[in-house]
Design goal:
Layout lengths: L11 H12 L2 H13 L3 H29 L3 H8 L6 H33 L11 H9 L4 H19 L1 H28 L4 H9 L8 H14 L6 H8 L6 H29 L10 H11 L4 H35 L3 H21 L8 E2 L2 E2 H28 L2 H8 L9 H24 L1
Antiparallel strand pairs: 1-2
Helix pairs in contact: 1-8, 1-11, 1-12, 1-14, 2-10, 2-12, 3-4, 3-10, 3-11, 3-12, 3-16, 3-18, 4-5, 5-7, 5-14, 5-15, 5-16, 6-13, 7-8, 7-14, 7-15, 8-12, 8-14, 9-12, 10-16, 11-14, 13-14, 14-15, 16-18
The structure holds 4-fluoro-L-phenylalanine.
C-alpha cells in the first residue's frame, strides 16, 4: 500500500480514543476482575501496575514507533524497517496471536450480547429468583445459541472495520469510550452502596504477598500486555495511522492511565458485589456473567443498570475487537492486495470456524481439549501468556537494538516538533533497550 493511500486517524483526540478503545475491552471488565480474584487480590494489582509502567509502557512506545516509521501493518512494517532480514516473521507471530484471541474474544463478545438481550427482557429484574450460575453454564455450554450471538458480534465488528479507519474505528471510539466511562462510574457508585462492600475493597487493595508465585507474575504480565493490546501488532497498525505530529509518549501515558483506571474501576464495580452476596471471587471466566446478575436482581432499578452494564461490556468488546480485526484485515490488504471488503469477508470466515470450535470446547465431554484445557482456555492462555509475551519481547529488542538511536529519538520527538524532555526520552529508551527485554525474559524463564 502506498503511503498516500493510508487513511489515518483524523485527529489526535480520535487517535487517542481509538488506542484507548483497543486497550479497554473485555480484558478490563471481564478478565482483570477474575484474575485479581484468582491471584489473591491487592498484591496482584500492585504487581500489575509495576509491570504496566516498567514493561508495557516501553513496549507500547516501541510498537507505535515501528508502525509509524514502517507505515504498514506488522509484517510490512518490520519488512520496511529491516528489509532482507527475518524480522518480518515477528509480524507473522502477531497474526497468530490475533487469530487465537479473536476466536475466544468473539465467543465472549457473543455472551455480552446475550446478556444484554436478557437484561432487556427483564431476566435480571428485582426479585428474579434464578440460579444465575446454572443459567450461565447452561447457556455457555449450549450448542446453537452462543454461536448465533457470536455471529452477531462478528458481524457488528466487521461492519465497523469495513467502514475504514476514520469513518468506522475512529468515529465509533470517539463516541463510545466516554459513554463507557460514565456507565462504569454509575456501577462503581451502585456497588459501593451495598452492605458489606468494604470487604471487597479490602480484598482489592490489601496486598497479601504470600499468594505471589511465578504463575502470578506470568499472569500479571500477560494481563498487562493483553489489556494494553500489546505483542500482536494492534498498536503497530494503529501507530501506522497516527499523525507524524502526535507525541508517542503522551499517547502511551494516556492509554496506559485510562486502561489501568478502567480495569480498577471494573474491579471496584464487581468485587464489592461478590463479597456482599457471599459469592466466591475466584470463579474464573464466569465471574461477570454470574455475579453481576445477582447484583442487578437485588437492587432498585436493577434492570436499567444491567442494560447499561452489558451495553458497556459490549462497547468495550467491540472497540477492542475492531483493532484485532484491523490487524488481520490490513495484513490481508497489504500482502494479498485484496479490497477491504474482501479481506474482512475472509476474516469473518476464519472467526466463525475457530470461534465455533472454542465455543464447542466448553461443552461437557467435548473432545476439543488439550492438556486438560478446553480450546477456549488454551487459546486464551497460549496467546496472552506466550505468543503476546514473545511478540512484545521481539518488539522491544527490535527498537532497542536494531533501530538506530537517532531514529528512535526522531520518532519520539516527531522530528523535533514535539517537546519531550531529554530525560524522559532517555528513560524510555533504556526501558525499551534493557529493562523490558530482561524483565520479560526473566518472567518467561521463571
Ligand atoms: N486490550 C483488549 C482488552 O483488554 O480486552 C484486548 C486486545 C485487543 C488484545 C486488541 C490485543 C489486541 F490487539
Amino acid at each position: 500500500m502506498k503511503e498516500s493511500d493510508r487513511s489515518g486517524f483524523g485527529s489526535r483526540f480520535g487517535a487517542i480514543l481509538a488506542m484507548v478503545g483497543s486497550a479497554v475491552g473485555l480484558g478490563n471488565i471481564w478478565r482483570f476482575p477474575y484474575l485479581v480474584g484468582e491471584n489473591g487480590g491487592g498484591a496482584f494489582i500492585l504487581i500489575y501496575i509495576v509491570f504496566s509502567i516498567l514493561i508495557s509502557l516501553p513496549v507500547f512506545c516501541a510498537e507505535v514507533i515501528i508502525g509509524r516509521r514502517g507505515r504498514a501493518s506488522a509484517v510490512g512494517a518490520f519488512r520496511n524497517l529491516a528489509p532482507g532480514s527475518k524480522w518480518h516473521l515477528a509480524g507473522y507471530l502477531s497474526i497468530l496471536a490475533v487469530f487465537l484471541i479473536l476466536s475466544f474474544y468473539s465467543v465472549v463478545g457473543g455472551w455480552s450480547i446475550k446478556y444484554l438481550v436478557d437484561s432487556a427482557m427483564l431476566k435480571f429484574s428485582a426479585g428474579a429468583d434464578a440460579d444465575f450460575s446454572e443459567l450461565f453454564s447452561s447457556f455457555s455450554t449450549a450448542t446453537w445459541s452462543p454461536l448465533i450471538y457470536m455471529l452477531v458480534f462478528i458481524l457488528i465488528n466487521s461492519a465497523v472495520v469495513i467502514l475504514g479507519v476514520k469513518n468506522g474505528i475512529e468515529r465509533f471510539s470517539k463516541w463510545m469510550m466516554p459513554l463507557l466511562f460514565l456507565l462504569i462510574l454509575i456501577l462503581v457508585v451502585r456497588s459501593a452502596c451495598l452492605p458489606g462492600a468494604g470487604v471487597g475493597y479490602n480484598y482489592l487493595f490489601h496486598a497479601d504477598f504470600t499468594k505471589i508465585n511465578s504463575d502470578t507474575l506470568m499472569a500479571a504480565l500477560g494481563q498487562s500486555f493483553f489489556s494494553m493490546s500489546l505483542g500482536m501488532g494492534a498498536m503497530i497498525i494503529y501507530g501506522s495511522y497516527v499523525s507524524r505530529k502526535d507525541s508517542i509518549a503522551s499517547h502511551a501515558v494516556v492509554t496506559l492511565s485510562l486502561d489501568t483506571l478502567f480495569a480498577i474501576l471494573a474491579a471496584c464495580a464487581i468485587m464489592p458485589a461478590v463479597f456482599s452476596f457471599g459469592l466466591q471471587p475466584n470463579q474464573g471466566p464466569g465471574l461477570v456473567f454470574v455475579t453481576l446478575p445477582y447484583l442487578f436482581s437485588n437492587m432498585p432499578l436493577g434492570t436499567i443498570v444491567a442494560i447499561f452494564f452489558f451495553i458497556s461490556l459490549l462497547l468495550a468488546a467491540i472497540s477492542s475487537a475492531i483493532s484485532l480485526l484491523e490487524v488481520m484485515t490490513s495484513f490481508l490488504i497489504e500482502e494479498f492486495h485484496l479490497s477491504r471488503r474482501q479481506a474482512v469477508t475472509i476474516c469473518i470466515a476464519i472467526q466463525v470456524v475457530f470461534g465455533t470450535l472454542c465455543s464447542f470446547s466448553l461443552q461437557a465431554g467435548s473432545p476439543l481439549k488439550l492438556a486438560g484445557l478446553s480450546l477456549f482456555d488454551l487459546f486464551d492462555k497460549v496467546s496472552s501468556d506466550y505468543v503476546m509475551t514473545i511478540g512484545a519481547l521481539l518488539t522491544v529488542i527490535f527498537v532497542g537494538w536494531k533501530i538506530k538511536r537517532s531514529d528512535y529519538l526522531d520518532e519520539m520527538t516527531s522530528g523535533g516538533a514535539v517537546h519531550l524532555p531529554r530525560w524522559a526520552a532517555e528513560v524510555i529508551y533504556w526501558l525499551i533497550k534493557v529493562v523490558a527485554p530482561l524483565a520479560i525474559l526473566a518472567i518467561l524463564i521463571l
